[in-house]
Design goal:
Layout (H helix, E strand, L loop, with lengths): L12 H39 L4 H21 L22
Helix pairs in contact: 1-2
């Protein structure tokens, strides 16, 4: 497993300027993905309200959006110079218990 939010002391100055353009492109994709995920949330609400159970397809799509968001956060928050892929990639999110 790789820690997504680890500390890196070294930072590239050129990467800082590339990050602005790259983050803009990622932001467009994330906003479209988020809009569709928001619609899925509303539909999921009514599925649960009417049927009393969740839709696996809707849950998977919403989870994919959240995984993509967490995947790009270290780069867009200036925590790493490692560029994430532009298109969504499956990333597992786990909670470690102390």
């Amino acid at each position: 497993m790789k820690q997504l939010f680890g500390y890196e002391e070294e930072a590239g100055r050129i990467e800082l300027f590339i990050r602005i353009i790259y983050s803009f492109i990622i932001g467009i994709i994330l906003s479209i993905y988020g809009f569709i995920a928001g619609i899925c949330l509303i539909i999921q609400f009514f599925v649960i309200f009417i049927l009393g159970r969740r839709s696996q397809g809707l849950s998977g799509f919403i989870r994919g959006y959240l995984e993509y968001y967490v995947h790009i956060l270290p780069y867009t928050s200036f925590m790493t110079d490692e560029r994430p892929g532009i298109f969504p990639k499956t990333v597992g999110i786990f909670e470690e218990e102390a």
